[in-house]
Write a structure and sequence with these properties.
Length: about 280
């Protein structure tokens, strides 16, 4: 028997239904709930229905390098393995093509076997493995440290071939998603004032993340010593006024152990992420 689904963009009136779906799919502390109203307002949250029953959802947004990012995927437990995730992927592929977008990306936790199967069935392939860790900044002391924003491409020669970037196959974490780092992406990061250099270490340090509690920033190291680099980012972020930091780093036990030693904690939703991409 073929199950027929229908879809539309979420509306404010759907809020309570979506909350119930998230709690059924993930639990009462699903991170999506804290920013749900803002997500709905941005009009990128696709809902899947069977008749009038809400059975799944997934958000669509654009990455800095103009790929479609698929996030916040949730399927009602009783509707899993019935094609909901693949249906939403196909729906958003059609939507992306209309916008002139040629690639879709997402990440899946390595232990989420049903989602991995659905992604591969939908034509996605793995492009990088990463771990997301976070740090709560303690105290208000801002250590004096010399740093500067990178304002032109001249100091970035050879950056795209750095050992660190190669560990992620040319992809880097930017805010809550992954982008393919190239000259165009670097130019946009320079324009947004989010590329920094400190003692030979180069890194992306985002502006404060909207809709996050407190002053939260995400960063990605691009070049230089890993341990020195993280220590530098912490100092710069503290100087700029930051309550918490988060980062995607290559999934390597040695690097993860260094980050932990510097105070970072594994995030349950991203302790081993498989970043995936699909050409459309």
């Amino acid at each position: 028997m073929t199950i027929v689904f229908n879809t539309r963009i979420a509306r404010p009136s759907d809020y309570k239904k979506i909350v119930r779906l998230c709690k059924r799919a993930v639990g009462p502390h699903d991170y999506v709930l804290s920013s749900l109203s803002d997500t709905i307002a941005r009009k990128g949250l696709f809902l899947a229905f069977s008749g009038k029953e809400l059975v799944g959802m997934s958000n669509f947004s654009l990455t800095l390098d103009n790929a479609g990012w698929l996030g916040m995927a949730r399927t009602d437990p009783k509707w899993r393995r019935k094609g909901v995730a693949v249906f939403l992927q196909k729906t958003k592929s059609r939507y992306a093509r209309k916008l002139g977008i040629s690639k879709l990306r997402l990440f899946v936790l390595s232990t989420n076997t049903p989602s991995l199967r659905a992604c591969i069935k939908g034509g996605f392939h793995p492009v990088a493995e990463s771990a997301h860790l976070s740090l709560r900044m303690r105290g208000s002391h801002a250590k004096e440290i010399a740093f500067c924003k990178i304002t032109d491409m001249k100091s970035l020669e050879g950056l795209l071939r750095s050992r660190y970037i190669s560990k992620l196959n040319g992809y880097v974490g930017y805010k809550w998603n992954f982008l393919k780092l190239d000259k165009s992406a670097l130019s946009k990061l320079i324009a947004s004032g989010e590329l920094y250099e400190c003692g030979g270490v180069k890194f992306i340090l985002s502006k404060r993340i909207e809709h996050e509690e407190g002053a939260h920033r995400e960063f990605s190291l691009l070049e230089g010593s890993f341990e020195k680099g993280i220590a530098s980012v912490i100092s710069v972020a503290r100087k700029l006024g930051t309550d918490s930091l988060g980062t995607f780093i290559p999934y390597e036990h040695y690097l993860i152990s260094i980050a932990r030693r510097l105070g970072f904690k594994d995030d349950s939703w991203g302790w081993h992420c498989i970043a995936m991409e699909k050409k459309i």
